[in-house]
Amino acid sequence: MDKDHALKHLILTGHKDGQVLIWRLSQYIGVIDDYKCEVTAMSFCFEGVAFATIDGKIYIWDIYLLKNNKIIDINLLPFKILSEHIVSLDFNKRKLIILTMNGDVIETKLNEQTANQTIKAQRIN
Fold it and tell me: What is the phi/psi pair of residue 24, to 5°?
């Protein structure tokens, strides 16, 4: 099943209280998760959906929104960031681009050569 079919007519909304809600057209279905921190961005990515919170974490869910497969904490990256406040996520050509409040631009790639699919990140100037 492709992601267009799996999430057809679904709307996801992220909120200041940390909840991510799922809707089908105008009908409320339920809460996907409650992150306790403001949800600031979301995007399709890799093989699922990514949700970013104000504390610098990105939660990558599977395409069916059943489980959280990976968490990226930009505070733990091996380079200095100017802000942990993520304001935007963009996915293009197998790369997730993360933008923060103070101008950080971070590119992440999914490394599929390893069994556990690691994320590789680099700062873009």
Answer: -120, 110
